[in-house]
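User: Structure please.
Assistant: Input sequence and predicted structure:
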Amino acid sequence: MKLGRTAVPTPDGEQLRIVSVDTAAGRVVDLARAYALTLARRGADADRATAISRTVFPSSMSAAIGGGDLFLDAAHQALEAGDDASHSIDEVSWRAAVDSPVIRDGLTFETHIQNFHRVVAKAQPARSLYERPGYFKGTTAKSYGHDQVLPYPDYTDALDWELEIGYVVGRSGSDLTPDNSLDHLFGITIFNDLSARDVQGAEMAIGMGPQKCKDFGYVIGPWITTMDEIASIEGLVGQVRVNGDVVSDTKVENFVYTPAELLAYVSIADRLQPGDIIGSGTMGFGAGVEIGRFLQPGDVLELELEGVGTLRTPVSTEREKAPWWPTPRPYPHEEWSL
């Protein structure tokens, strides 16, 4: 099943709805509405049917996934009334496919590791990349969905995309192993881990991980494909298009650490939660820095992944300027000695 989130305007502001996506029919089904109709047709009072359906299908995808098997069982039942709760796939306003409690992003594809270190780091990859699956935690405050306009931060001239698989967690779990970690995987989506490359180098030298080179946003979507529809993550093909032109073809291959190993490692001394998203790391040639191209104001980016779909991101035509930026301080350690 393919599941996403759309925004519906109401007098009280935007309301988010969980939808089932039928790409072949070109429609989405509002699952809360459809489930309420299904329950009413089975004899439930209309008010109770609405209350129950809004509990099972809240605005939060993470909360819905946390409902366990009930969520997907109810989603399939809701499709009985799908004809009476559907909208054209081209007429809805999409939001980030999942509102993750925690966003983590890995680095697990050898091809991208090599390309990045040759072009950006201009150094050998760190030995530690091959000793454990590296990842960082990112902000959950700025997540965009399919067709949402991405603000172009004024502090960068090297805005880059990164085509990644987003592993969406379905069940809580700690201290997992590669043998059982995929049992906790709900589905996959496209995860665009955007980067300001000309800011990234200075921030990484601080030794605290990425900050403003990542904080301005992630793009997640267009929807989640549940794992019963994915025969194998390895081997899925992807494509990157900018303004309609194909700029890169890529494939899920050449893992340093597999999805099962990455999920298991993240769970050690920590806890996976329903709705958490873990980026796979960029697929080989899945980033602009690998092919010498960055996004410009007004560009339209499309990231396609087999089994999921196409995630489209228009970039704002104007740069978004911060009201303040720190002034560099004099460096006091020119004569530093141990």
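DSSP finds seven helices and 19 strands in the chain.
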